[in-house]
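so my prof wants the structure for this chain in the tokens format not the other one, which i didnt know existed until like an hour ago. anyway here's the sequence
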Amino acid sequence: MNYKRQADWPKVTPRDTIADMTAVSIGKDGYIYTLDRGGRSWKDRNAPTTLSSPVIKQWSAEGEQLAAFGSGLFVMPHGLCVDPDGAFWVADVGRHQVLKLDTTGTVLLVLGQERRPGSSADCFSLPTGVVVADNGCIFVTDGYGNARVMKFSADGTFIHQWGKRGSANGEFKLPHSVALDPVGNVVVADRENARVQMFDCAGRHLATWDNRELGKPFSVAASMTHLFIADCGFPNDRRAGLVIINRTSNEIVRFGEFGTAAGEMLGPHDIDWAADGSIYIADAAARLHKFRREE
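here's what i got, hopefully its the right format
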């Protein structure tokens, strides 16, 4: 399996903006959607005001920015999911909430208590990621403050949770993102444990990948055969890139380099993969990367 970064992607024009990219999600419509911090620094994640700029961007597969929305809603947006029905879900660490939006930016559902962190079933503490299953069930990694995965029904009713702070299987040390594989298994980037864990939809542990070559998994996406990881490196390694694991053989391959030159990465923060095999990485250093598979 070989991947190469597409050098002429995206095609940013003077009217387009790319702030610090925190998340990327591929919609069923084939478009690429990104989430950014609107120019706000991480240290200002508890700012008293919402971001005035639109933080959700729509991109074509050719790299053209087509639309932008989501202004005036978020404090520190962190995770993004486009669900099977085309709705947008955003995990906001500043609001301590997860919001569901339609394509006009109208809020359809809110999970959590605004600016009230907690560990109860109706609260989050700095939630990091969200993903929605085909049956409407919602999974949230909660996240920086807590160390758990929470499951909700399609209408937002809490179902159950799993995980606590630790390093044993089923425990987390900063669950930084969450994804589903094609059959609905829940895959978690357990960032500070430098590993990826997989569970069934009821939270039963299925597998752990913890090879040092994973680096520090900030995000993960999963096909039936492979895991795709955005590696932001260990603190002193000065490395970043795309890591691909064969789920059967555990073979690991890496692509991409750490650096500031064109095409290099500084802070790969989120990852998703498209039906044509392309992989997209949101880079917190205000970059967006596309890797195309080469036969």
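also thought this was worth mentioning. The two ends are 7 Å apart (CA to CA).
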